[in-house]
Amino acid sequence: MSPPIRAFVAILLLAAAALCAPYLATDAARAQSGLNPSNNLEARLVSNGPARAGETVTLAIVFDPVAPEWHGYWKNPGDAGLGMQLEWDLPPGWEVGEPLYPVPKRLMIADLMNHIFEGEYAVLVPIKIPDDFMPSGSIPISVEGQWLACTDKICVPEGGTLSMFLSSDPDAEGDPQFARWQAEIAPLLDARGSFEVAADRVRIMIPLPASVDLPAPHVFVANERLVEYSAVQTFSREGDTLIVDIPRDQFGTDKPSTLSGIFAFGDGIGVRFEADPGAVPVLPVKSVLMEKPDIPPLHLLLLGALAGGLLLNIMPCVFPILSLKAISLARAGESQSQARREGLAYTGGVVLACVGLGAVLLILRAAGENVGWAFQLQEPNVVVTLLLLAVVITVNLAGLFELPSLSITRKGEPASAFATGLLAAFVATPCTGPFMAVALGAALLLPPVQALLLFAALGLGLALPFLLIGFVPALRAMLPKPGAWMDRFRKIMAIPMGLTALALIWLTKQLGGEGFALFALVVTFGIVLALAVVGRLQRAGKLAWPAFGLIAAPFLLFGAFALPSSYQPQESSAAQSLLEPEVFSPKALAKARASGNPVFVWFTADWCVTCKVNEGVAIEREVTRAAFEEAGVVAMVGDWTQRDAQISQFLTEQGVAGVPLYLWYEPNADAETLPQVLTADMLVERAQRTR
Questions:
Q1: C-alpha to C-alpha distance for 538 and 657, rounded to whole angstroms
Q2: Cα–Cα distances in Å, from 637 out to 280, 318, 588?
Q3: Residue 453 in contact with residue 301, Cβ under 8 Å?
Q4: Helix (H/G/I), strand (E/B), else coil: 460
Q5: Coil vs helix vs strand at 5
Q6: How do beta strands 270-277 and 193-197 pair?
Q7: CA 406 to CA 390: how far, in whole Å?
Q8: Least confident residue range of 97-111, 203-217, 357-371, 533-547
Q9: I need a labelling partner for 331 at 20 to 30 A (CA). Which of 50, 128, 193, 390 fits?
């Protein structure tokens, strides 16, 4: 349900409560008892002791549902509901303090987050008695209260006049349950925090001792319409400082002078805090709270990562390195021991690369960076390095020079398989395949050891076919025998590797502009020239590699200075689409969903081959454009070619770690996550269904 509809529901509830209020008054006898038999959430008024001049007496409004399905609301009820309204009748000079609440619970109904209390609970209200109070007998106290009682299906405005006689006898005792009710109230932190309100985020610093364990952290913000109540909250912690980052309510306009709330970190456990406007530091990300989707058990995540890695072998992103794998597999038939060494070496390279990339990803996120899977291809220097590596492998396969670790003529050399495994994992993993999205998304939320296990399982899945061929003779026997054909095959396989290099040249332009790509080509030319000289010297039987250093060094020095100065971040190219999409932002998505039209959002990147294949097959088609136009579908694209904190955060909130991601929103409905491999008519059928 969109935020405007949430607001509309809340307004209706408020109006209903106001209209029904005149009919909720109790008669004199019921008011005297403090009970209204017609209420589903019964209430009574009790005290913790006698009235003494110059002191504070605490009264408790105790709520008790007539059946377990009924619940009440915190003072900020959330997306829907109604906070309690009180009008006191006290002796002259008596002052009412702010009501104090226990730690609420969260209840999600139809995309609405509610802040509720279940079972019996008490709201404590401090009453300051003036110094000149002259005690005499019992003092009548009453309060006119209105509140909302709800189940998961219906809500009923309720209320009544709660009254009691407060004793002035110094020896009078309060209700025996008062100690329990006071213990359930969230205590107030001594130190005040600070907060910042940005265009789309609210960041809060809470001074919380480092010794406090946080098994299930969540912040209930008392200020209404300031934050998105159902959004994912990101926590970071260092010493006695805790930072919470919450998406801002896109339809809220106020920037409060103070902020207050309850920080909950367990079942009914929490503290109250108050914060003033001020600087909020950036700390390492410790944990992200995910309500949707739930994290599956670890064994299922491991199976998903293994299956995802296995399927990567047939995904388009793996095709550029198939040449290296094919040659390695063919060479595996020479001997059983060599085949096993090759299989283990290749597996070691793949698993090491996946775990290494995963470890770097976790370290960057712990340092406060909003990055996701395939972050390496968002770095221009990494792309240039991959370009040079692809060119080196291409000219090696074409026979321009010989590199021992990549040669197919040397026997018993596991270094070639290990290097191939490293390259396979580094280049093949940017596009997440089926089964991988949930596993890798969960890896960003799990403890480091479990997360690294998932990355290792991904690598094992990617390496599994090659490993099986190395250890299963029947599979190895299906490969052709080594022979002269291997040299011809190697040169043929230089073609797809060369296409990979061309794709990387295009990517350098998409990342850094034409000047950046031109300078990268100059460096590439220098490397190829140096390798050509190396090849001539090798064929003449002379010492070759010192010549490579002499020729390549000036070009590498040129690149070290010219590439950084020529780098110019480029605008999103994904927005230039046949569908004329809007550029993704959380605010733009909220506005599109509020329009009442269907919404299609896709997240892509220029380095994601699967993304580009899906765009050609299902998105960038005239029939798709026509169906969207007829159904009024709002198209929106998030281009993740360059690093984008908003997209990274949104992907994390969706429980995925990379692209592609495709979301379809029916009017007034939650997102439907489409498969990562789109079919030609998938989008057209959904558009036609909504007409």
A1: 46
A2: 31, 25, 11
A3: no
A4: helix
A5: helix
A6: parallel
A7: 12
A8: 357-371
A9: 390
Determine phi and psi for 11, rounding to 5 degrees. Answer: -65, -40
CA–CA separation, 265 and 217 (whole Å): 4
Mean pLDDT (whole number) for 368-394: 78
Q: For residue 454, what is the enclosing H or E element?
A: helix 448-471
Say yes or no to pLDDT of 609 above 80: no
Which of the two residues, 456 and 4, has the higher pLDDT score? Answer: 456
* Predicted confidence (pLDDT) at residue 253 exceeds the cutoff of 70: no
Residue 445 binned pLDDT confidence (cut-offs 50, 70, 90): low
Return the structure tokens found at 442.
């969960």
The pair of structure tokens assigned to 652 is 């994390």
User: Distance between CA atoms of 50 and 446, rounded to whole angstroms?
Assistant: 52
The torsion angles phi and psi of 179, rounded to 5 degrees, stand at -60, -40
Q: Which tens digits make up the pLDDT trace of 254-278?
A: 789 999 999 998 778 899 999 999 9
The contacts of residue 174 (CB under 8 Å, 6+ apart) are: 46, 47, 48, 49
User: How far is Cα 428 from Cα 421, in angstroms, rounded to an integer?
Assistant: 10
Question: Six-digit token pair at 656?
Answer: 């995925």
Q: What is the pLDDT of residue 104?
A: 94
* Coil, helix or strand at residue 679: coil
The number of angstroms, rounded, from the C-alpha of 679 to the middle of its chain's C-alpha atoms is 27
What's the Cα-to-Cα distance from 495 to each of 15, 323, 393, 509, 655, rounded to whole Å?
A: 71, 9, 11, 22, 38
Closest CA to 567 of 510, 523, 515, 606: 515
Coil vs helix vs strand at 506: helix
Task: Identify the pLDDT of residue 294.
Answer: 56
Question: For residue 495, what pLDDT band results from cuts at 50, 70 and 90?
Answer: confident
* 3-class DSSP assignment, residue 159: strand
Looking at residue 293, the DSSP 8-state letter turns out to be S
Task: For residue 76, give the 3-state DSSP assignment.
Answer: strand
Q: How far is 231 from 532, CA to CA, in rounded Å? A: 57
pLDDT at residue 384 greater than cutoff 80: yes
**To 5 degrees, how large is the angle CA 362–CA 358–CA 417?**
160
Listed in sequence order, the residues at least 6 apart from 248 whose beta carbon sits closer than 8 Å to its beta carbon are 197, 198, 199, 200, 201, 202, 226, 227, 228
Within a 13 Å sphere around the CA of 21, how many CA atoms are in the beta-carbon half? 14
Q: What is the largest CA-CA distance in the chain?
A: 117
pLDDT for 614 equals 87
What was the pLDDT predicted at 369?
62
This prediction's pTM: 0.55
Report the chain's terminal Cα–Cα distance, integer Å. Answer: 20
Which own/partner contact pairs does 120-123 have at CB distance under 8 Å and 24+ positions apart?
120/62, 120/63, 120/64, 120/65, 121/62, 121/63, 121/72, 121/184, 122/60, 122/61, 122/62, 122/63, 122/181, 122/184, 123/60, 123/61, 123/63, 123/84, 123/99
Tokens describing residue 348? 């070691």
- Torsion angle of C-alpha atoms 375, 378, 384, 385, degrees rounded to 10: -10
